[in-house]
Design goal:
2 helices; 363 residues; globular; five-stranded antiparallel sheet
Length: 363
Amino acid sequence: NFGRMKICLAVIAALVTTVAAHSSLLRPKPRNAIDSQLPQWQNGTAPSKSWCTSAQPCANPCACRNGSDVCDVGQTCLWMSVGCSIGCDVCDGGTIGGKSVGTNPNTLDRCGSGIWATNNDPLHRTFNRECTGACIGTAKDWTKFNPWRAPGSAPVYDACGRAGGGPLPTGGHGEYIDTPLVKFGDLGSMLPKQPSGTVWKAGSTVDTMWAIRANHGGGYQYRLCPVTSNLTEECFQKTPMPFAGNSKMMMSNGTMLPLRSTFVTEGTQPEGSAWQMLPIPMTRGGPDLREIGYQFPPPCYDPTPPVALGQGICSGEWITNITLYDQLTVPADLTPGEYVLGIRWDCESSAQVWQQCADVVIE
């Protein structure tokens, strides 16, 4: 057994502050990186290395690696939606009935919709894989209300993310440092156009890059919306971009790892569209995240012992230098013109969705 290594270090894990999942689209450079235009956020810098954990040195909020280039992302990883359960009409921002209710981990049907999960294959899940058969839908199926359990179905505040994740700050770095360009709570779809220099040909295979900052499992999809349209979920869901093949991972040691990607098409929105399961296993699980151990086998030989808020070579929770490289197919029937590329990451252990948007030209 690859050793889920579920060492019950409940006392230790209970002392660890949970973090909200965070991620950054790197290529094409997104509109959400707008703060990188400011001196204090340029060239991978930040006003302070304010994110610290028991297992990692202090680092920039959106620390990442962009191949051999500077990871010039500003506060890209802080554009998300929090308090979002499948079956709900809206996200709650971490507040239910006027009270603050944590979103990570989340075991709640946050709006009482009663909607069942549609992504139930254990090999397509990133947590609690031992829950199968009659276990599905029971109290032991603790991720069943979270976005990845019905990919694309959970509501979001905005199809390009919301600065800080909602109307108010939340625990686990549901935050955003106000700048002259963006204020907490701003909507990503309202950001000005930021030409990325990316030009794609209809019908071609193209490459993208993104990075996880804090891991909460789940999976993701890329979509397109014409720049002349309102940047809504409805628009983006009309044109999901198919994956063109397996992805690659630049591991924390700088080595490129070819992946055997896991694509999910059952129970997804748009119906039958392909999503990719996040290939980086989290290092703890359980409904209170107190069970230390890989939640599925790492895609490489990773000798790093799993710890809360730690990072290995191809695994981890609190990540600063693992990058994912994806191959996509540009739909051949697209009208040439300007488009907005959106990435949507639906989390599994938390009631959270990460989204960013980048400007591209299609010929």
